[in-house]
Amino acid sequence: QVQLVESGGGSVQAGGSLRLSCAASGYTYTSGCMGWFRQAPGKEREGVAIIYRRGGSTFYADSVKGRFTISQDNAKNTLYLQMNSLKPEDTAMYYCAVTKSYCVGGVWMSEPQSWDPYWGQGTQVTVSS
Fold first, then answer.
1. Hey, which residues does 73 pair with through a beta bridge?
2. CA-to-CA distance for 118 and 90, rounded, in angstroms?
3. Phi and psi at residue 88, in whole multiples of 5°?
4. What is the CA angle 25-98-104, rounded to 5?
5. Residues 18, 8 contacting (CB under 8 angstroms)
6. CA nearest 126: which of 88, 96, 69?
7. DSSP code at position 88
């Protein structure tokens, strides 16, 4: 059974930084994608950053480019999201997700439910002005 456990969320002031982690267990796939998505109250879930498990190519939402960095440690089955220069509009519940196998990062970014991914429970990020 695949489990994804996020950590690292919290409350920070605008301009601050946070590092999110996602520990995956029971996950044996070596291909596909891992990613971070977020959902603010009253809004749809949106893609933040995606990384291919093989090769490490990355995709970012325009709103976070240059501020967020996604990375992975395949040996530890752990996904990270370094978030710098945080803004109040970054406030949301952040979710880790992993596809079972094949994915197209650009598509998954805009269609989070594509390829029936596994989801974590989320970690809250709150940025105050």
1. 78
2. 23
3. -55, -35
4. 155
5. yes
6. 88
7. G
Whether residue 119 contacts residue 95, with contact meaning beta carbons closer than 8 Å, is answered with yes
Token readout for 11 is 């409350």
pLDDT of residue 129: 95
Q: What six digits make up the tokens of 16?
A: 């601050």
* 3 state SS of 46: strand
Q: State whether the Cα torsion 75-48-46-16 is positive or negative.
A: positive
Q: Is the Cβ–Cβ distance between 60 and 51 less than 8 Å?
A: no
What is the maximum alpha-carbon separation in the chain? 41
Here the tokens at position 22 are: 């996602």
pLDDT digits (tens, 9 = 90+) for 30-65: 788 999 999 999 999 999 999 998 889 999 999 999
